Amino acid sequence: MSEPMEGAPEALQTDLMRRLRRIEGQAQGVQKMIEEKRGCDEIFNQLKSIHAATYGACLALMRQYALECMADAGGKSREQALDDMMSLFLKLPS
């Protein structure tokens, strides 16, 4: 069910890369906070931010997947394409 990103618009790829760089920076920040023995509440808040950023990236990718699947089911019925999309959606972090 894995489709390549090659059909995705350049703007989406740029957006996802920007989001992932931000998430990477946040994760490095959390590592530093742990090394500095910062408070659990501070670390937890940063982890929540990482989770929200990851979820946002997933939603952006899911939107593109939906547009592509609904436009071209690739030999599948629209219903099957929607089922595939929903299966991916259910795997998103909650």
Structure description:
The chain has helices at residues 10-35, 40-71, 78-90. It is mainly alpha-helical and 94 residues long. It has a single domain (8-90), classed as Methane Monooxygenase Hydroxylase, Chain G, domain 1 (Up-down Bundle). Helix 1 (10-35) runs antiparallel to helix 2 (40-71) and helix 2 (40-71) runs antiparallel to helix 3 (78-90). The protein is elongated, with a radius of gyration of 17 Å.
β content, as a range? under 5%
Indicate the overall shape: elongated
Largest sheet entry: none
CATH homologous superfamily classification: Metal-sensitive repressor, helix protomer
- The domain count comes to 1
Q: Low-confidence runs (pLDDT<50, min 5 residues)?
A: none
What tags apply to this protein structure?
single chain; elongated; 3 helices; mainly alpha; 94 residues; 0% strand; Methane Monooxygenase Hydroxylase, Chain G, domain 1
Provide a compact summary of the structure:
The protein is mostly helical. It is 76% helix and 0% strand.
List the helices and strands and how they pair.
Elements: H1 10-35, H2 40-71, H3 78-90
Helix pairs in contact: 1-2, 2-3
